[in-house]
Amino acid sequence: MKHSLLSSDGRAFDLALEKFTLGLSLGDNGELESLTSSADLEEFECLLAAIHIGSLTGIANPPAEALSRLKRAGQDHLKASEEERNSSHDGTA
Fold this sequence. Notes:
2 domains
């Protein structure tokens, strides 16, 4: 079963971060693919790109409202993902 990059034990997150910053060995890349979906990896790569671009603009802190919305969106996404996984486990999906 594949897990969200943010809701697993952290191994998938660590591997994804390494993949998009330093690169991975074939073995580690295979492990990452077994831990998470390609859609999650693509989303993670976009997030890293956005963070990088944001760091180039010289903006010290994003507006508080934007951070609050981002946090709520992330929480909603994780909650929906967890509910989807739970419903597939109990056969209601």
